[in-house]
Amino acid sequence: MQDDALVNYDFHCPYCDSPLTFLIDTSQGSHDTWEDCHQCCAPIQLQIIVSPMSGELESVVAGRDDDVL
Question: Which domain of life is it from (predicted)?
Answer without folding.
Answer: Bacteria
